[in-house]
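A note on notation is needed here, since sequence and fold are reported together in a single record. The reader may check this reading against the record printed directly beneath this paragraph.
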Amino acid sequence: MIEALQYEFMRNAVIAGVFASLICGIIGTFVVVNRLVFIAGGIAHAAFGGIGLAFFLGIPYLLGTLGFSLVAAVIMTLVLLKAKNRADTFIGVIWAVGMASGIILLDLTPGYTVNLMTYLFGSIIAVPDSDLWWLLGMAVFTIFAAAYFYRDLLAVSYDDEFARLRGVPVDLVYFLFICLIAVSIVLIIRVVGLILVIALLTIPPYIAEKYTRSLAMMMVLSSFLAMLFSLVGLWLAYAFNLTSGATIILTATVGFFLSLAVDAVRRRCDQHQSAA
């Protein structure tokens, strides 16, 4: 891996992986604790509509995709807050509409030649310098938002009804962080792709939740794990000439199953100690 860093694209890939991991660790913790994985998945797939819109209108990729994803995120948040029992249905519809509209818009784009694999499965080694600045800005803003709203996040994540009684702006917190989910997904699509981004948002926080006792420590450990999976996956992709996004996610999946194995061993040990 050290010798690979002599290439600028590999240095960019490592930097992108680190920034993306910080974002996923913090935002993913909110997703996992609040059981918003389906919403995150809906936003990720709806983002494909933004990709199609950007190419159809000939506007910058980030501008079109961010706008489309934020609209989808606002609609999903309104549904979640006002009609929670029907949220999964509405999110499924938005998910399907986003994907379908993206494909139709790409079909209608004159002279369309973009490789869809880049957006579906990601290409961290092709991340441009401009995206690195976006990722850096998003990482800084995410850390600031998590620190500033930490008490509110804690209250909303574990008992939103009690949080409302205490005067916590629950709706505002949901809107802010679901919009952050949307922005994060759009920026990280270039790293692992819209199909695989949900795994990077959910696997590290899921593992971290079992080994931490506070939301803050869960965010820290989740970011570290995401960073570990990204760097190891990137090295494997470079060493064996594999697709980087898929390799990163498979590395995270191995970590997921290892954590389950460790849990099983610990439970067995506890049972033997109790029996003794």
Q: What stands out?
A: The mean pLDDT is 86. The chain has one domain: 3-275.
